[in-house]
Design a protein that fits this description.
6-stranded antiparallel sheet; 6 strands; globular; single chain
């Protein structure tokens, strides 16, 4: 009887924790997914996707440029709006725009409708809000689909662009 009780106790020590930690692991996975979802705010009516950054504006810009280049994107220009404001004696919280792209992604959109060229190369806006939170914003590919009437032509290219931008934004800001 003693051996049976010891066996049951030993089984409880090893099996129960495995089941209990499985629930903990699932909760942790859900919490990570929830926090990632909360850091990315989908496009509003203005078509801009907003992603909270864990870094300063300057660090976010540097990370964006580095990671974008690693992913085969061209950095066309970086515009420092804060420096522009200072040049005329005005104040502006840190605000920069990165113009970037890849002709392999943009050309098919312009072949569908050349007005897409007004939004290409793409732009990323990195700014600090009134509370000191840094954000990365970019045009939602779905917004571009509607704006340039690309339904039936540019959807596949925009789907790939959307996936690439989402991954880029996560890597840059987290």
């Amino acid at each position: 009887m003693k051996k049976v009780l010891l066996s049951i106790a030993a089984l409880g020590l090893f099996v129960f924790p495995a089941y209990a930690t499985q629930g903990i692991r699932e909760n942790a996975k859900n919490e990570i997914a929830r926090s990632r979802k909360n850091s990315i705010i989908g496009a509003r009516k203005d078509g801009i996707v907003r992603v909270k950054s864990a870094y300063s504006v300057e660090e976010t810009v540097q990370r964006f440029e580095s990671i974008a280049k690693e992913q085969g994107l061209n950095i066309v220009a970086t515009v420092n709006h804060q420096a522009g404001a200072e040049s005329i004696g005005q104040e502006l919280r840190p605000t920069q725009v990165i113009i970037f792209g890849n002709p392999n992604a943009g050309t098919p959109l312009m072949q569908c409708n050349q007005t897409a060229g007004i939004d290409l190369p793409q732009k990323a806006l990195i700014w600090e809000d009134e509370q000191g939170q840094v954000w990365l914003g970019y045009n939602s590919p779905k917004y571009l689909l509607i704006r340039h009437q690309l339904k039936g032509c540019g959807e596949e290219a925009l789907g790939k662009i959307e996936n690439a931008l989402t991954m880029l934004a996560e890597k840059v800001t987290q």
